[in-house]
Amino acid sequence: MQQTSDGGYIVAGWTGLTHDVYLVKTNASGDTLWTKRYGGGYGDEAHSVQLCSDGGYIVAGYTSLASDSYYDQKRDVYLLKTKSSGDTLWTRTYGGPGDDIGCSVQQTSDGGYIIAGSTSSFGDGSGDVYLVKTNSSGDTLWTRTFGGKYVDKACSVQQTSDGGYVVAGTTSSFSADSSSRVYLIKTGPDGRVVTSLHDGPGNLPTEYIFHQNYPNPFNPSTTIGYALPARSHVTLTVFNVLGQLVVTLVSGDIEAGYHEVQFNGSNLASGVYFYRMQAGGYLQTRKLLLMK
Questions:
Q1: Percent of the chain beyond pLDDT 90?
Q2: Pairwise pLDDT comparison (198 vs 63), residue with the higher score
Q3: What pLDDT, on the 0 to 100 scale, is given for residue 287?
């Protein structure tokens, strides 16, 4: 829900045996001004709503496709744009062959929208964080996935002052026992990871840790994780087999905790590369394989 410019509220969820998206507009006292239902009749839910600059609303959730069984239904991210009266302007869906769910939406400074949720259609694991950027008409500009080999999902997304995005959610991929941990991701304006942080097992790490990248081999992106027992100056670099510097992924003071960064090799040739971390007195080099 969100408070609206007239002092009332807009509430989004779902209703009925057919699980329709349900939108309720109230006055400042919570008295209903109008209600609207949307959906295809196979199970649709709204998980996020925001007032837009034109006075209408943007709603994100999921829509289900026809199936013989409710429990076997495939779900796609559902984006719904309405007028101020709640009447539909347009709808869009995003996803692939698996389940894809939108959990948070925000209008961005360019008039488009950013959606965060989860996907089992794309990425590396049984469920990954799913980030979708659209233009003002809901057409896809880019998508990104984040996570590891277990279940990871986003619960909230916000645009930041630098034009990038911060995403909060949970991760089971980056804990010692596969239990859920808080997952925080900071991206640039193009959705590429600047850094991410998760509250790994216990409190803070007791030693420096430099993980093997995942996936490996990879094409074209892979995730590199590391842990710091204390605030440290970190340099994380990638070299080719000739020892030539390819890219510097991290260079600066980083807080203690569990971190990860993405390396994208889309502009590189297939082959073996090496990545190295220096932090405090710690130095470690590992090998990664790009296969196109």
A1: 63
A2: 63
A3: 95
Question: Which phi-psi region, left, alpha or beta, contains residue 224 (left: φ > 0; alpha: ψ -120 to 50)?
Answer: beta
* Residue 220, amino acid: P
**Sequence-distant (≥ 6) Cβ neighbours of residue 28 within 8 angstroms:** 6, 7, 8, 9
The amino acid that residue 247 corresponds to is V
Q: What is the pLDDT of residues 5-29, one digit of tens each?
A: 999 999 999 998 778 999 999 999 9
Query: Cα-atom radius of gyration of the chain, to the nearest Å?
Result: 21
Q: What's the pLDDT at 205?
A: 77
CB 121 within 8 A of CB 128: no
In angstroms, the CA 104 to CA 26 distance is 21
Can the peptide bond before residue 201 be classed as cis, meaning omega within 30 degrees of 0? no
Residue 165: which H helix or E strand, with range? strand 165-171
Distance CA 110, CA 217 (A): 36
Kindly report the average pLDDT of the chain as a whole number: 90
Find the length of the chain: 292
Q: Is 16 helix (H, G, I), strand (E, B) or coil?
A: coil
Beta bridge partner(s), residue 25 = 10, 34
Q: Which domains does the chain have, with CATH numbers?
A: 203-292 (2.60.40.1930)
pTM here is 0.73
The C-alpha angle 158, 162, 167, rounded to 5 degrees, equals 25
